[in-house]
Amino acid sequence: MHNIAVIPGDGIGREVMEEALCLLEEICKTNSLLTIEWEIFSWSSEYYLQHGEMMPKNGLDTLKKYDAILFGAIGDPRVADEVSIWDLIMPIRKGFEQYINFRPIKQLAGINAPLQIDKDIDFVIIRENAEGEYSNMGGNLYQGTSQEMAVQNTVMTREGVKKASAFAFKYARSKNYKKVTSATKSNAILHTMKLWDREVASVSSNYEDIHFESVYIDALTAYFVQRPEEFGVVLASNLFGDILSDLGSSIVGGLGVSPSANINPEGNYPSMFEPVHGSAPDIAGQGIANPIAQVWSLALLLEHLGYEQPADAILQSIQHVIQEGIVTPDLGGTCTTKQVGKAIRDQVKSN
Ligand code: NAI
Ligand code: MG
């Protein structure tokens, strides 16, 4: 028996979440091995406008009791992005030590991706999600004067890099990926990136069955475009991983089909699963958002909880629906969010 906390959020987050939940309901109905219950939390920008906070003060204590979190998207033109992101998503990621950000980069047949590569693109990006370049250490001197100078520190700890590397190699082995590629820049960033290189290499020595390579980030971005089919697991620091993730999702079809997971590998807190995209105010309310990224995020959640079979069934159904051309405008189609959601459900049912 598993309990999931569901936070639809704002804008299209709510629209695509509806499809994910209908699908979950369907799967639970037809699969007696799946015992999942969920509770929906209305924490969002709307909630903020009413209560002056994105979630209640004891929000994390409430979420802590769940086995996983399914998140939609947050963001509303009436509330500063700084508030919506930093007062809801960030406390969850940080408070629950979700130090791995995980993104599958998989080319689904039938998607008109920009590269048009007729090869099997199927790799994952594992991004260190808690330290690195996104620290708030630093400062700004002489602000507003001609001598103004800003310093932003990167913080890398041996322990942090080691844990992220261990996750990457373990994952590669468990899923039969033959290669781990580490993104580095130790030719120019001499302190932190050398520590990164050393720790990753040290962890790699425990995995002789997996080929390990370390590639400079600038060259790596080019290889992503030139030969994406060669990657297995790509391990990167916070900033490099952020950039590679968006590049990766754009080569296989864009935001509407890009799921992600924020993982707490120790399992002492819940992990969170969410589409990469935001609340898309430009199309919110029109019923044309692509629900695939959200539905795929649900599949990642189910897989994380050990329900591999329904997770596979969802992915196969997504694949089928795309090949049938049942897609939203972002993928060149004319279908609505609900039509795509229903088609995926029908396909899961018929399998
Ligand atoms: P966005 O991801 O919401 O939208 C970017 C573009 O992609 C838009 O043109 C949108 O229509 C399109 N798009 C996104 N998801 C789509 C889908 N499922 N189907 C079809 N088209 C889709 O990013 P943007 O515009 O930069 O940010 C909008 C709001 O979302 C902001 O408030 C931002 O802070 C927030 N945001 C929240 C995130 C989260 O909740 N994790 C992540 C990124 C942004
Ligand atoms: Mg990003």
UniProtKB/TrEMBL annotation:
Cofactor list: Mn(2+); Mg(2+)
Broad EC category: oxidoreductase
Catalytic activity: (R)-malate + NAD(+) = pyruvate + CO2 + NADH
GO molecular function, one term: tartrate dehydrogenase activity
EC number: 1.1.1.83
Assigned keywords, A-Z: Manganese, Metal-binding, NAD, Oxidoreductase
Ranges for domain Isopropylmalate dehydrogenase-like: 3-344
PROSITE patterns reported for this sequence: IDH_IMDH
InterPro entries, sorted: ICDH/IPMDH, IsoCit/isopropylmalate_DH_CS, IsoPropMal-DH-like_dom, TTC_DH
Database matches in SMART domains: Iso_dh
The keyword Oxidoreductase belongs to this UniProt entry's keyword annotation: yes
Keyword Cell division belongs to the record: no
Gene3D superfamilies: Isopropylmalate Dehydrogenase (3.40.718.10)
Family membership: Belongs to the isocitrate and isopropylmalate dehydrogenases family.
Name recorded for this polypeptide: D-malate dehydrogenase (decarboxylating)
Organism from which the protein derives: Halobacillus shinanisalinarum
